[in-house]
Amino acid sequence: MTITRDPLTERVIGLAIEVHRTLGPGLLESVYEDCICHELRAHGIEHQRRLSLPVSYKGLQLEAGFRVDAVVERRLVLELKAIDQILPVHEAQLLTCMKLDNYGTGLLLNFHVALLKDGIKRMVL
Predict the structure, then answer these.
(1) SS (H, E, C) the chain
(2) pTM
(3) Residue 2 in domain
(4) With the CA atoms of 1, 97, 44 and 112 taken in that order, what torsion angle do they form, in degrees rounded to the nearest 10?
């Protein structure tokens, strides 16, 4: 299986590494979210923060059914964590978000690691 390189994903990972290199592990998720969104803004990368995604259940529309940390350029979902270990439920959460609004790529970024490269999980539908 060949994995295609995505310049946007690589750029966002680079910005996340910069945030982690500057702050290190041990802070709240909200701090990392503020900083990564600051970096996206500073680099002219369009994004939406804390975006609510509607959930449809048997014809019932739940408007605030799911909230994603950030969506970059309307195609890359960011789910940020600051936890000891990424669990399968966190991966499922990202995949669900990607499926709800048909996003092709997602990044699960866990900032509670010594090296951010060990806290990055890229997912593609």
Answers:
(1) CCCCCCHHHHHHHHHHHHHHHHHCCCCCHHHHHHHHHHHHHHCCCCEEEEEEEEEEECCEEEEEEEEEEEEECCCEEEEEECCCCCCHHHHHHHHHHHHHCCCCEEEEEECCCCCHHHHEEEEEC
(2) 0.89
(3) no
(4) -80
Token pair for 119: 């806290």
2 has pLDDT over 60: no
Number of domains in the chain: 1
* Residue 21: pLDDT over 70: yes
Q: Are 86 and 119 in contact (CB under 8 A)?
A: yes
The CATH number of the domain holding residue 13 is 3.40.960
Question: 88: domain range?
Answer: 7-124
What does the pLDDT look like over 50-88, one tens digit per residue?
Answer: 988 778 788 888 776 678 899 999 999 999 999 999 999
Q: Indicate the angle between helix axes 7-23 and 29-42, nearest 10 degrees.
A: 130
**Rounded to an integer, what distance in angstroms lies between the CA atom of residue 35 and that of residue 18?**
10
